[in-house]
Amino acid sequence: MGTSPSIIMWINRQWVISLTNGTAALDWGEGMAQDLLSGEFLCYSAEEYGHTLRDEDLTALHASGRVASFTALQVGLYAWPPR
In percent, how much of the chain has pLDDT > 90? Predict the structure, then answer.
């Protein structure tokens, strides 16, 4: 039997964003983000910023197993798999 992944951190919801190309990402600031599905780091410009993730976006990420849980203020993220 497998074990459930552990939540590694709760992030303020304002830092969980969607870029204009549809990528859901964790915003690390100064144009640096981390793709929530792949874990890859990427740079983005102000023009590529879309919006903070909406409930429906977070629900889909929860169904995919990437987001553990979310509230109106925070998002609980699972650890990315080891590389």
Answer: 75
Q: Where in 1-83 does DSSP place strands (E)?
A: 7-12, 16-19, 24-29, 32-35, 41-43, 49-52, 67-70, 74-78
Q: Is 5 exposed, middle or buried (0-12, 13-18, 19+ CB in 10 A)?
A: middle
Look up the pTM and report it: 0.83
Tell me whether residue 18 is exposed, middle or buried, using C-beta atoms within 10 angstroms of its C-beta: 0 to 12, 13 to 18, 19 or more.
Answer: middle
Tell me which residue range forms the domain holding 44: 7-78
Decide if 79 contacts 22 (C-beta within 8 A): no
Residue 2, in any domain of the structure: no
Residue 54 lies in a domain: yes
Tracing tokens 């993220």 back to the chain, one arrives at: 77
